[in-house]
Write a structure and sequence with these properties.
By secondary structure, this protein is an alpha/beta fold. The protein has 14 helices and twelve strands. Helix content is about 45%, strand content about 20%. The longest helix has 21 residues. The mean pLDDT is about 95. Bound molecules: nicotinamide-adenine-dinucleotide and zinc ion. The site of zinc ion has 5 residues, from α11.
Amino acid sequence: MDKVVKVKIVEERSYPIIVGKGLLGRVGEILREEGCGHLAVIADGRVESLWGDRLREVLNGAGVKHLFLKVEPGERNKNLSSARRLWNELAENKVDRGWWLASLGGGMVGDLAGFVSASYMRGLDFLQIPTTLLAQVDASIGGKVAIDHPKGKNLLGFFYQPKLVLIEPSFLLTLSQRQYKNGIAEVIKYGVIKDEELLHLLRKKGREIKERKEELLEEIIDRCVRLKADYVEKDEKDVLGIRAQLNFGHTIGHIIERESRFRLLHGEAISIGMVFAGELSFRLGFLSLKELQELRELLSLYNLPQSINFPLSIEKIVEGLHWDKKVKEGRIRFVLLKRLGEAFLFEEIPLKLIKEVALQLGAIA
Ligand SMILES: NC(=O)c1ccc[n+]([C@@H]2O[C@H](COP(=O)([O-])OP(=O)(O)OC[C@H]3O[C@@H](n4cnc5c(N)ncnc54)[C@H](O)[C@@H]3O)[C@@H](O)[C@H]2O)c1
Ligand SMILES: [Zn+2]
């Protein structure tokens, strides 16, 4: 049975997220039911070569006319020149407002296709078909779409909610080990900020999850999707400080990711960031030592890094916090833990403490 999560924003922007093993085989049917007869698919090149034929077959079976546009894999292609090329190709193929546009791939292509959907002819109906774990539990949900600019990642973008998100766990079977782990870090984050049962599952079923048993993948993804949808409903545009909790581990994580020149994947960097935030929570007397150790054990169960493993000075971290506007009068804003399963925003972290934890986790004095 598919699991359906409804994202309830204002009426015209509400939409379902469907999670289910075997869903790929029903994409055509579902689109037909939604009234979609023409679909332009913006596909990550690697995913297209692995899964494109199957999707084409399914769309043909349901009589959905389709056009596939490929984008080379890699974050460097999430830019204006890709968007421009896609706009051109859509126009050359006479794609109009009667068409839907889909993304097939990870968050890179999802963000780019969403950006193109939002802008082409003032907005086409948009379908997300995420194929990485990170995109299935995070990037495809919530309506943030963007491209990068030389002056900053995700600098140009929109809030543009999709009409539908279809999540097929079987896509994850072809994902590299490193990319899979990258997504697991985000899954752990959801458990840590809000879902004790998910934490329990991650601990108890470690082996099966690492083996990517599809029933478990489905269950885990469904839990994460529900959590994210809930945050998005309460704070669609990320202005109330509610959606900010999703940034647990990300304050330091983003700095580490950037300073590693993206040699560390996002999930690897936020794994270190989560340990950092956990340590702060412990030192400030919120989180018990036992729970901090449990967090560390969970990250090591999934072989995620817990210390800064490249030369990074404390000064760079402090600079990064200023750059992110996280510092106000020498005090810093951070998402911390009261316990495993409950996060909160704390505004009063002394810079001195940040430096101590940075040193402990391997930053250079
Ligand atoms: N919009 C949001 O809310 C949001 C949230 C988080 C991240 N993001 C964005 O997401 C992007 C990162 O996404 P990502 O981690 O999915 O990376 P990605 O899209 O770059 O994909 C990672 C790699 O996996 C490959 N791949 C994808 N699916 C595969 C499959 N099923 N089998 C084999 N290989 C496959 C791709 O070819 C690529 O090489 C970043 O651009 C980030 O800014 C957006
Ligand atoms: Zn993240």
